[in-house]
Amino acid sequence: MRLAVFVLTLMAATSLHAGRPISNARLQSPAAEAAPDPLLIEVPDSETIGEYEDWQVVKSSTLTAALTHNDTGSLFGLMCSSNGCTYYVNASAECDAGAVYPGLINTAAGAMALTLRCAHVKEEGQPYAILLIDEDLSDELADTDEISITIPLADGKVDTSRFSMAGAADAQQDMLDNTGDSGQPPAETI
Questions:
Q1: Over the stretch 25-36, which tens digit does the pLDDT of each residue have?
Q2: Which neighbouring-strand residues pair with 67?
Q3: Which of 166, 176, 189 has its CA nearest to residue 64?
Q4: In whole angstroms, what is the distance from residue 6 CA to residue 14 CA?
Q5: Is 89 exposed, middle or buried (0-12, 13-18, 19+ CB in 10 A)?
Q6: How far apart are CA 144 and CA 141, in angstroms?
């Protein structure tokens, strides 16, 4: 996985566009052809380096992630690069790169509002969107067996994804152990 640039701009909160796939044109920078898209995360060469119950650890030369997926294929995890660490969830609908969206996470301890920032990912030539979570969820994720993340959609509906936390603490610790020499800042584990 290669993290091109991890800088996102603040924009007005809005709902996701339900049902429209991300087009390849959105992944191209509006600037000159040679300029990299600052809102594109490229993932060309990742490999799984550990598995812990419902979680796995994926690593490349510049990015390491601890992640889980649910039965519908949605992903949730923590990724670290030289620019820092952030939690993320994949978007089931199209979102505009750089745009900010509201969300809600529910755990055994209660609910918390989220600020989600859209980034586009290109993995093995296939484009899709993820939502980077501004908040540090380490405390909220401790001692919980399952979480749900709810995101409002443009058509008045909501998208709710549930994720198992079985193995999360071990996966995140492995991820942090494997990023220690890359200059990445330490992050708390759950």
A1: 232 323 333 344
A2: 56, 77
A3: 176
A4: 21
A5: buried
A6: 6
Work out the number of other CB atoms within 10 angstroms of the CB of residue 123: 13
What confidence tens digit (pLDDT) does each residue in 18-77 have?
Answer: 433 333 323 232 333 334 455 677 765 778 999 999 999 998 877 899 999 999 989 999
- Alpha-carbon distance of 16 to 78, in angstroms, equals 22
Nearest to 15 by CA among 178, 147, 188, 131: 131
User: For residue 90, how many C-alpha atoms fall within 13 Å in the half-sphere facing its CB?
Assistant: 19
Phi, psi angles (nearest 5°) of residue 178: -85, -5
Among residues 46, 90, 57, the alpha carbon closest in space to that of 72 is found at: 90
Residue 92 in tokens: 């089931």
Q: Return d(Cα 43, Cα 126) in angstroms, integer.
A: 10
Query: Cα separation of 106 and 137, whole Å?
Result: 11
Hey, what are 28's tokens? 């191209």
In the chain the beta strands, taken as DSSP E runs, fall at 40-43, 47-52, 55-59, 63-69, 75-81, 84-90, 100-107, 110-123, 126-133, 146-152, 158-164
Contact criterion met (CB below 8 Å) for 87 and 189:
no
Instruction: Kindly report the pTM of this predicted structure.
Output: 0.74
Distance CA(93)–CA(154), nearest Å, equals 10
